[in-house]
Amino acid sequence: DEEDGSDESFVSALFHVHEWIIESTELMAQFIALFQELSAELNARLGVCRAVGYWIRACPTHFDTSLCRLTDRLRLLAIAEGIPNVNALLDLSALPSYAWLRNVSVRNPVGRQISLSFEQWSADDISTSLSHIDYKALYRVPISELRRYCHDGNLSQAPILERSISIFNSLSNWVQCMILSKGTPMERAEVITKFISVARHLRKLNNFNTLMAVIGGVSHSNIARLSKTTSALSPDIKKELASLTQLLSTQSNFAHYRAALNETANCFRIPVMGVHLKDLIALQAKEGDIDRSRVVTRRRVLHLAHLLSFFVSFNRAPHNFPDPSVDLINTLKVSLDIRYNEDDIYHLSLKREPRTLLNFQGSAKSVVFADWASGVSSTLDPETVNKHVSAMVDAVFKHYDHDKDGCISRLEFQQIAGNFPFIDPFGAIDTDRDGQISKSEMKAYFIEVNKRSMEFRRGFKHNFHETTFLAPTSCAHCGKLLWGLIRQGFKCKDCGLAVHGCCKDSAVVECRRRSSGTLTWWSPSTNSSTHSKKLFISVR
């Protein structure tokens, strides 16, 4: 199989993708066992040490505390056996910490001053901050979680991947909410124009993942149906939106996007996570699992290395984004932590521009693959929520508490309220009714909003029961027909979702329970039949 690549490229690929086949600690344990078995072969033992040394140089980010401990054990064994130059060969002291990869916070934060009002944010500032957030989330996804999801289709055991998906969906929904929060078509058109400028800058940064989330929000049916708003856009903006939509369209398996990605092969870029996860799932479905045999071909290793390189930069090259504003990032994080209900967004769209006989449109499928994992929203732990909210509130008071009395006035509140669509009025946050909002009041408000948002997310589990379907019915997860005479599949008692028995644990569509009474903006809508549910990518 020499035509598949040189030995050097194969060995490099093997070490980079080995986590798809075997745990790193298990691989190192096998190296140690092999070293001990080769008691009479000095050259073979030296070869084992050289292999591990190559691993250290090629993949330094793999070496966490556990792996370093095993490597040090091999080093001590080699020293005891008189292996030459082993200290230099297995030296771990010079390894970088790679804290910028493992730490959720932004690398090299700067104290650059910036307004925290959405109206005053520049498109460059928004795109740069969103890129830092998305980069941190995506490039922390380990190969083990990608493999686990491709194997069983369940995100519950892949929290970092789930968080990345949640950020993508939250951003797309936030874009829609920011547009719909404006009362007139001209104001909404101005927000759309601003997001098109954000998208233009994201394209320059080669951040395709965030670009798709933003364009997916702008071109979503909730926004596209607003004919008065669309007519208020300039011809140039309409043309640019059409061009970006075409770039990210699903046509011919994302042919335009893949061509653009190939043009940036030698540059830093953030690919579209959903597209390449789909490719990994297709490979898994086509070639099967390798758990049992542990036999893998050279061709598959090289193919795996290519597909995984879109998630894990093999050289772990740092990004080339401009310096961020940490305060702006903290403000955006809180906006993205809040769960924006898709049904309520749709109803707000109808409220802004009611449906008429002249502008009635069916629920046409969006050209852009925006909500590729709709319904997936990770539940942040209270400590993380408190951290995000505290950082955001501190930033707000640093910039807007001009007299440094520890309070925000009604006028100052209006300047920052635009960052959070559907935020409660000033009086609801000013709980002590003193005409000012203190730090503690603002923190308590946003923590409560996130708490209710998380309680809402926990209600997404379906109440499946085995059912006989009298009419032909397709599985909502895989799309295939539910075959059989009786009890062909399972149906959710609350929302009516129908799936195969083997698919019910993998379905990640929200359970839209019917409920009575008035619901707030973070709660499920009482009418969920107005638009179709979207699924996580499935491969047939």
Automatic annotation (TrEMBL):
GO cellular component: plasma membrane
GO biological process: Ras protein signal transduction
InterPro entries linked: C1-like_sf, EF-hand-dom_pair, EF_Hand_1_Ca_BS, EF_hand_dom, PKC_DAG/PE, Ras-like_GEF, Ras-like_Gua-exchang_fac_N, Ras_GEF_dom_sf
Keywords, in A-Z order: Calcium, Guanine-nucleotide releasing factor, Metal-binding, Zinc, Zinc-finger
Molecular-function annotations in GO: calcium ion binding; guanyl-nucleotide exchange factor activity; zinc ion binding
Keyword DNA-binding among UniProt keywords: no
Stretches that traverse the bilayer: none
UniProt domain N-terminal Ras-GEF: residue ranges: 1-100
Domain Ras-GEF: 122-355
Residue ranges annotated for the EF-hand domain, each copy included: 388-423, 426-452
Residue intervals of the Phorbol-ester/DAG-type domain: 461-511
Protein name stated in the entry: Ras guanyl-releasing protein 3
Phylogenetic lineage: Eukaryota, Metazoa, Ecdysozoa, Nematoda, Chromadorea
